[in-house]
Amino acid sequence: MSVIISEECINCDACRTVCPVHAIVDDMENPTGESRYYVKPEKCVECVDIFDVPQCAAICPSIGTITWDFAFTKENNEHFTSNEVYKLGERRGKLLTPAYREKKYRADIPASMRGVGELVEVAPEEAAS
Ligand code: SF4
Ligand code: SF4
């Protein structure tokens, strides 16, 4: 991760259908128990090498709902393991933390633009690529 979905989500399902790596689950499957859609940070690759911009943010009709969070890298491991907004998945009994396996991220998005609540600004014309 990546990107994160806020409580402004209207559960429209648009983002889930366009995510190329199936990183988004609906409100019923949100592991945090919140009644909104959820991006699995251990799966999201910020659309790197697939699209120029995050497709979920590009299609979301609720502007500002999908925002940047820190990259899913080892140096941010504690953020993802201790932050209550995330419930990481497991594989063979191991928690899928950044320390276990880092994910690709948008290197052109600096740390200063990251953190829960930092807008993913995607112009409409960038939505299709
Ligand atoms: S940024 Fe891309 S990979 Fe990540 S959740 Fe959104 S659509 Fe999926
Ligand atoms: S596209 Fe936006 S409003 Fe719709 S489910 Fe995804 S985050 Fe929620």
Write structural notes for this entry.
- The structure is a single chain.
- With 129 residues, the chain is of the alpha+beta class.
- It has a single domain, classed as Alpha-Beta Plaits.
- 12% of the residues lie in helices and 12% in strands.
- It contains three helices and seven strands, in the order E-H-E-E-H-E-H-E-E-E.
- It has helices spanning 14-18, 55-59, 77-82, and strands at residues 3-5, 24-25, 38-39, 66-68, 90-91, 94-95, 118-119.
- The strands form three sheets. A three-stranded antiparallel β-sheet has the order 1-4-7, with no helix packed on it. It has a two-stranded antiparallel ribbon with strand order 2-3.
- The protein is globular, with a radius of gyration of 14 Å.
- It starts with a strand and ends in a 10-residue tail after the last strand.
- The mean pLDDT is 91.
Characteristic key phrases:
129 residues; binds iron/sulfur cluster; globular; alpha+beta; two-stranded antiparallel sheet; Alpha-Beta Plaits; 7 strands; 12% helix; 3-stranded antiparallel beta sheet
At CATH level 3, the topology is Alpha-Beta Plaits
What count of domains describes the coordinates? 1
CATH class (first level) name: Alpha Beta
Ligands bound, unique = iron/sulfur cluster
Instruction: Please report the total strand number as a whole number.
Output: 7
Write the layout of secondary structure elements.
Elements: E1 3-5, H1 14-18, E2 24-25, E3 38-39, H2 55-59, E4 66-68, H3 77-82, E5 90-91, E6 94-95, E7 118-119
The chain binds iron/sulfur cluster (2 copies).
One iron/sulfur cluster binds next to α2.
